[in-house]
TrEMBL record:
Pfam families: DHDPS. It is found in: Cytoplasm. SMART domains: DHDPS. It catalyses: L-aspartate 4-semialdehyde + pyruvate = (2S,4S)-4-hydroxy-2,3,4,5-tetrahydrodipicolinate + H2O + H(+). The keyword Amino-acid biosynthesis applies. The keyword Amino-acid biosynthesis applies. Keywords: Amino-acid biosynthesis, Cytoplasm, Diaminopimelate biosynthesis, Lyase, Lysine biosynthesis, Schiff base. Coiled coil: none annotated. Catalyzes the condensation of (S)-aspartate-beta-semialdehyde [(S)-ASA] and pyruvate to 4-hydroxy-tetrahydrodipicolinate (HTPA). This is 4-hydroxy-tetrahydrodipicolinate synthase. It comes from Streptomyces ardesiacus. Its main location: cytoplasm. It is an enzyme of class 4 (lyase).
Amino acid sequence: MTTDDDRPAAPFGRTVCAMVTPLTESGALDPDGAARLAVHLVSRGCDGLVLSGTTGESPTTTDAEKAALVTAVREAVGDRAALVAGVGTADTRHTVDLALAAEKAGADGLLVVAPYYSRPPQDAVEAHFREVADASGLPVMLYDIPGRTGTRVEPDTVARLAEHPRIVAVKDCSYDLLGTQKVLSRTDLAYYAGCDEQVLALYALGATGCVSTVANVVPGLFPAVFDAFDRGDTGRAAQLQRRAVPLVESMTAAGLPGTVTAKALLGALGLPAGPVRAPLRPADRGTTAGLLAAYEELTAGTAQFQAWPPPDSSPSCGYGGPR
């Protein structure tokens, strides 16, 4: 199903935040903090949230914590945003177990990364995704991030997987613009830019939206980019994307994982985040000061982008999909 401009429909919203997983100072899961952060992000423009993704520290949270996180956020945001649970692991059986637990906890969809470390061939990658998609009733977003997994989900593999009725979307961190266009031209999959510097470029080519780390601290940025593009003001859309470059670079391309930089900046802004779990280490004071300077440069004079103070109300962000 596509919209009038031939853009695939948005099964999980348009601006999806790859939300951090708030922890207490002792390092335990902070469900209350997660609920507060989720409400804040939704009230500021995100109509979808990825929980327990890469930015959500999925490798170092337990299965029970992942389910508890979905439950807490579901109770907090209700049906005002789609919740996509990261369930990908290097083990197909474990991934299936996490998928079933996420469905039970109230997720709307599953984010499934290519199996990592073992570097399976493409037929095994395809079989892995199909087994997970067959296991639950939830729609699936494929997650292609070869820089972390060591395994590409090749365009031909993605095109075959698009035939599965529950595989509906892709989070694209492939940095393969040609491959992305090949899949967009051959399938109705909803493509989500997974790299913040590519959001407008992929949207202009027909992507559905983004799954953004930077949205943790500027949840209103990419809705503004999309809205400008949709009304034909492509110059304004490009201006906004370029304006975000210093913050995007400092958060995602300056040598530290996005989890570390997002939590450092959220903490500096007084929003729920807490520490990171080992082997990650917190950002130092100098790094945090640089992040805050980039944030302030982007948001100066633009209340729409500012993360703090939170708005007085929490209006619906338009997601009305099934739960």
